[in-house]
UniProtKB/TrEMBL annotation:
<protein>
    <recommendedName>
        <fullName>Rieske domain-containing protein</fullName>
    </recommendedName>
</protein>
<dbReference type="InterPro" id="IPR036922">
    <property type="entry name" value="Rieske_2Fe-2S_sf"/>
</dbReference>
<feature type="region of interest" description="Disordered">
    <location>
        <begin position="1"/>
        <end position="35"/>
    </location>
</feature>
<keyword id="KW-0408">Iron</keyword>
<dbReference type="GO" id="GO:0046872">
    <property type="term" value="F:metal ion binding"/>
</dbReference>
<dbReference type="Pfam" id="PF00355">
    <property type="entry name" value="Rieske"/>
</dbReference>
<feature type="compositionally biased region" description="Basic and acidic residues">
    <location>
        <begin position="12"/>
        <end position="23"/>
    </location>
</feature>
<keyword id="KW-0001">2Fe-2S</keyword>
<dbReference type="InterPro" id="IPR017941">
    <property type="entry name" value="Rieske_2Fe-2S"/>
</dbReference>
<keyword id="KW-0479">Metal-binding</keyword>
<dbReference type="GO" id="GO:0051537">
    <property type="term" value="F:2 iron, 2 sulfur cluster binding"/>
</dbReference>
<keyword id="KW-0411">Iron-sulfur</keyword>
<feature type="domain" description="Rieske">
    <location>
        <begin position="58"/>
        <end position="156"/>
    </location>
</feature>
Amino acid sequence: APLRGVAPSHCDSSRVGRTERRAHTGGPLPSPPRTPAMLSLAARRFFSFGRTAPLRGVALPRAAVFMNEGERASVEGPDGPIVIAKMGGKVYAVDAVCPHMNKSMVDGEIELGPDGPELKCPFHNSKFCMSSGKCTQWVTGIAGAESKFVAGRVRGLGGSKRDVSAYNIVTAADGSMTLEKKVAE
C-alpha cells in the first residue's frame, strides 16, 4: 500500500498537489454536472433574495403579460409554483404552495375578498390574500367541504397559521414582466 503523502513511483513528485491550468483553446466549454443536488444549489444561488431582489431567470409566460381580466397563469419560482392572476385591472402573484401541508394551490379557486383577490387551497380551504400573502382563513374543512370536526383534526397536523409570499409585478419599458418578492409588513 502506498504511503500517505508520498507520490507513487510513476508520478513526477514535483507536480504532486499542484493544479494544472490550461488555456481554453476554443470549442464548447464542458457543461457542469446535472445532478439534482447541483441543479438545486445553482437555483438557490441564482434565485437568492434580497429585500426586493427580482426573480431573475423566471420567465413569465406570454399569457401572464397579455392576461385578460379574470385569467390566471402559473410559473415555477425558486420556492415552487407561483400563481399569477388579473383581477380588477391589476395583476397579482403569490406562492402557490399552501404552508399548512405543502399542497399545491395552482388550481385553487380565486375569490374576491375584502382586500382584493384571495387564493383558496383546494385541500383544506385556507385562503390567502393575493395582494399581501396574508392568510385570511386557516383550515376550515377538507377537499373543499366545510367541516368544523374535520378542520379541528386536520388543523393541528400542519402547524400554526402562516402566510405565503406575495410578489410585486414589475413591467419593463420593453413590456417584459418580472416578479419581486414583497417585504413582509
